Amino acid sequence: xxxxxxxxxxxxxxxxxxxxxxxxxxxxxxxxxxxxxxxxxxxxxxxxxxxxxxx
Length: 55
What we know:
- 15% of the residues lie in helices and 15% in strands.
- The protein is built from 1 helix and 2 strands.
- The protein has a two-stranded antiparallel ribbon.
C-alpha cells in the first residue's frame, strides 16, 4: 500500500463546483450565502431501474 500524498496549502489547486440551475450551469461560488447553504444540504440519489411491465 502506498503512503498518502500530503500537499501544502500553497501546492493545492482551487476546485470550483458548478451545478445546473433552471437549464444552465452556474458556479456555486456565485450563489448568495442562503443558496450556498441550500446547495450543501442537497443529497445525491440514484433512481432504480424499472423492468418493463412492472408498476
